[in-house]
Amino acid sequence: MDDGLRSNAGTAQFDSAAGAGLTLRGLAPRPAALRDGPGNVPRPTRRQADGGGFDMLIVGAGFAGSVLAERLASQLDLRVLVVDKRPHIGGNAFDRYNDDGLLIHPYGPHIFHTNSSEVVDYLSKFTRWRPYQHRVLASVDGQLVPIPINLDTVNRLYGLTLSAFELDAFFDSHAEKKSTIETSEDVVVSRVGRDLYNKLFRGYTRKQWGLDPAELDASVAARVPIRTNRDDRYFADTHQAMPAAGYTRMFEAMLSHPNIKVMLNTDYRDIVHLLPWSHMIYTGPIDAFFDYRYGRLPYRSLEFAHESLSQPHYQPVGTVNYPNDYAYTRCTEFKHLTGQQHPHTAIVHEYPRADGDPYYPVPRAENQALFRRYQAAADLLAHVTFVGRLASYRYYNMDQVVAQALAAFKRLQVAHDLIGAVRAADSVLDTTAA
C-alpha cells in the first residue's frame, strides 16, 4: 500500500449539483441559508471548469467509502478523492501479514456472510472467494460447547441425551415467560431460562458492553440465534466465504480506477478547504462531523492482543468465547479463517474498553434519541451524504454496509442523470434562442 495519492485522476463530466439548482440528496432545492454550510460544517467548493479538483470527496476508505468511490468513478466517470486518517485502506476490515508471514486481521476477525446475491455479485468483481463457515465454541464449566446454543450445547452442559424434538420442551420448562420483551435479558431468559443465560450470555455481555443485559436493548441478544438442531455454524447465511487473497487485496482492486485518488494519514478537515470538490460522502462518526454539538454518542471499543505461536494450531475452531473467565471476551485463531498453511499460528485476544476507536454503538433508547438529533442536522446538508456504520450509528455487518453504499450510489446516480438531462435541455433551449 502507498501513502499519499495512489493513482492519477481521470476526466469527469459532473460539476456541482448546485449549478443545476438541484442537490444530490433527495433532489430538492438547496435552502439558501445552507448553501455555504451551517456553523463549522465543511462547505463545498465548486470544481474548476478547467478540470481541476474533484467531483466527490469521500471521507473514509472502509467498505462504505470504497464501494461508493468505485461506483462513482467507474459508472459515472466522476473524479473521486478518498481521504482516511489511518495509514491504510480497508477500515477495520484491513488485513496484513505479520512479521512471521501470517495473515492477520489487526482489528479483530472479519468473517464475510450474507444472504444478498447482489452484494456477493458486486464484491466478486474484485476478489475470488475461499469457502469458509465460521464456528465458535464457548468455554463454560470446564468444557467447550457450541455457540449459538444448539442441541449439543444443552446435552454437554447438562449431561443429557435429548433429541431435537425434545429440546423445545426443555427450553419451555426453564423459560421465564415475559409479557413484554424490552431488554437483552428478557430475550434470553424468556427463551431458554436463567441458568443458560448466566452460563453463556450475562458475563460475556457485561464484559463486552460494560452493562448488564437488563440495561441493553433487546436487539443485542436478538442477533444470536438459538437452535434446536445440531447446526454448529455461527452464521446461517446463504453465502459464507473469505476473500481468497484477503480483504486488503480486494480493497486495492476496488480503488484502482484511474479516476480515484487515495490520501492516507490525513484528517479530512486538514484538506477540506484546500481542494475544490462538489459533494462529500462522509463515513465517519456522525457526532464528530458536527463537532459533538449535542454531545458524544457512546461507543464501546476494543483492545487487541496479538500473538504468534511456534505451533501449527492453537484451538479447534476459529473463535473461542470466554463468557465467565478472564478479562477478554474471545480468542480467534486466524489460520482457520484464512486457510493459510504455515508451521506457526497467530491468535488475538479481545479486551472490551470504554475508550478508544469507536466499534460498537451502545444500543440504548437515550443514545438513539441523541443520534436522531444528529440525523436531523445531517438531513439539512444538501452537499453531504452520510453512509456507513459510524455515520448511521448502527451495528451493521460488512454486507449491510455494502448494501447501504450500493443503495446510496443508486440515489446519487438518479441525481446525476437528472442533472444531465436538465443541462441537455438548457443547451437545446440556448441553441434555439440563438
Note the topology.
Elements: E1 54-59, H1 63-76, E2 80-83, E3 96-97, E4 103-104, E5 112-114, H2 117-123, E6 129-131, E7 136-140, E8 143-147, H3 151-158, H4 164-174, H5 184-192, H6 194-209, H7 219-222, E9 239-243, H8 247-254, E10 260-263, E11 277-282, H9 286-289, E12 299-309, E13 319-321, E14 330-333, H10 334-338, E15 345-353, E16 360-361, H11 365-379, E17 384-386, H12 389-392, H13 398-433
Parallel strand pairs: 1-2, 1-11, 2-10, 7-13, 11-17
Antiparallel strand pairs: 3-4, 5-9, 6-9, 7-8, 12-15, 12-16, 13-14, 14-15
Helix pairs in contact: 1-13, 5-6
How does this structure look, described?
- The longest helix is centred in the C-terminal third of the chain and has 36 residues, at 398-433.
- The chain contains 13 helices and 17 strands.
- It has three domains: 17-89 and 255-296 and 362-433, 3-Layer(aba) Sandwich (Rossmann fold), CATH 3.40.50; 96-134 and 299-361, no CATH class; 150-222, no CATH class.
- It has helices at 63-76, 117-123, 151-158, 164-174, 184-192, 194-209, 219-222, 247-254, 286-289, 334-338, 365-379, 389-392, 398-433; strands at residues 54-59, 80-83, 96-97, 103-104, 112-114, 129-131, 136-140, 143-147, 239-243, 260-263, 277-282, 299-309, 319-321, 330-333, 345-353, 360-361, 384-386.
- The protein has 434 residues and is of the alpha/beta class.
- A hairpin with a 2-residue loop joins strand 7 (136-140) and strand 8 (143-147).
- Strands 8-7-13-14-15-12-16 form a seven-stranded mixed sheet. Strands 10-2-1-11-17 form a five-stranded parallel sheet, with helices on one face.
